[in-house]
Amino acid sequence: MPATIIIGSQWGDEGKGKITDLLSADTDLVVRFQGGNNAGHTVIVADKTYKFHLIPSGVIFGKPCLIASGVVLDPAVLLKEIAVLRENALEPKLVIDPHTNIIMPWHQELDAAKEAVLGERKIGTTKKGIGPCYADRVNRTGIRFIDLLEEDLFREKVARNYADSKLLLESVYQQSPRYSEQEIFDQYHEMGASLRSYYGDVGGLVAKALKESKHVIFEGAQGTFLDISYGTYPFVTSSHTISGGVFSNVGIPPMSMDTIGIVKAYTTRVGSGPFPTELTDKLGDKIREIGKEFGTTTGRPRRVGWLDLVMLKYAHRLNGFTQLALTKLDVLSGLDSIKVAVGYRLADKPLQFPLSLKQLEQCEAVYEEFEGFEIDSSLREWDQLPEAAKKYINFISKTLQVPVSMVSVGPARKETIMASSGEQ
Ligand code: GDP
Ligand code: IMO
Ligand code: MG
Question: For the structural domain made of 3-83+202-423, what CATH number should be given?
Answer without folding.
Answer: 3.90.170.10
